[in-house]
């Protein structure tokens, strides 16, 4: 049996503003992909918000409804704020929009922290920010963008980490 070295796990953290709508959906969608690819022993996935208003709360009802519709688990997911050690614990810190990305760069204590804006990985996408459904109410649009973004992210990680 292949021995898995847990020291070498790849860490992926999705970040939005409130950690109840977009980044928990991204976390769930990406974990679903990773499990399908049988890479769950090698990739650690989490999400957080730049704000702290919703700490401890489960994903927003709109996010839960979409994930239920597509049979994607969000079990155990609870909102939390980005912490200082996230920048050393995670290899890929993935922002949902330009404001999240800017806030993360301000918070990052480590110059080489890898901060990516998800939709920058999808060249054919006209939208480069994932619109906030807390304000738009459009969770389906978010799901469509995240599925494309998560596929591109998994490809990038597989290529860069040789998985
Ligand atoms: P999210 O959406 O960043 O996608 O989780 C938001 C959720 C809550 C708030 C803002 C955005 N809020 O201001 O409470």
From TrEMBL:
<feature type="active site" description="Nucleophile">
    <location>
        <position position="16"/>
    </location>
</feature>
<protein>
    <recommendedName>
        <fullName>protein-tyrosine-phosphatase</fullName>
        <ecNumber>3.1.3.48</ecNumber>
    </recommendedName>
</protein>
<keyword id="KW-0378">Hydrolase</keyword>
<comment type="similarity">
    <text>Belongs to the low molecular weight phosphotyrosine protein phosphatase family.</text>
</comment>
<keyword id="KW-0904">Protein phosphatase</keyword>
<dbReference type="GO" id="GO:0004725">
    <property type="term" value="F:protein tyrosine phosphatase activity"/>
</dbReference>
<feature type="active site">
    <location>
        <position position="22"/>
    </location>
</feature>
<dbReference type="Pfam" id="PF01451">
    <property type="entry name" value="LMWPc"/>
</dbReference>
<feature type="active site" description="Proton donor">
    <location>
        <position position="132"/>
    </location>
</feature>
<feature type="domain" description="Phosphotyrosine protein phosphatase I">
    <location>
        <begin position="10"/>
        <end position="156"/>
    </location>
</feature>
<dbReference type="InterPro" id="IPR023485">
    <property type="entry name" value="Ptyr_pPase"/>
</dbReference>
<dbReference type="InterPro" id="IPR036196">
    <property type="entry name" value="Ptyr_pPase_sf"/>
</dbReference>
<dbReference type="InterPro" id="IPR017867">
    <property type="entry name" value="Tyr_phospatase_low_mol_wt"/>
</dbReference>
<dbReference type="InterPro" id="IPR050438">
    <property type="entry name" value="LMW_PTPase"/>
</dbReference>
């Amino acid at each position: 049996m292949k021995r898995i070295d847990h020291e070498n796990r790849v860490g992926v953290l999705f970040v939005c503003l409130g950690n109840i709508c977009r980044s928990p959906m991204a976390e769930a969608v990406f974990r679903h992909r990773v499990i399908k690819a049988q890479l769950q022993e090698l990739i650690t996935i989490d999400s957080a918000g730049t704000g702290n208003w919703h700490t401890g709360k489960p994903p927003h009802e709109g996010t839960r409804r979409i994930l239920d519709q597509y049979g994607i688990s969000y079990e155990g997911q609870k909102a939390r704020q980005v912490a200082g050690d996230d920048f050393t614990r995670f290899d890929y810190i993935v922002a949902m929009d330009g404001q999240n990305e800017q806030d993360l760069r301000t918070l990052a204590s480590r110059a080489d922290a890898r901060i990516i804006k998800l939709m920058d990985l999808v060249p054919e996408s006209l939208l480069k920010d994932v619109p906030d459904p807390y304000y738009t109410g459009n969770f389906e649009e978010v799901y469509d963008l995240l599925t494309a973004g998560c596929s591109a992210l998994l490809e990038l990680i597989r290529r860069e980490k040789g998985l």
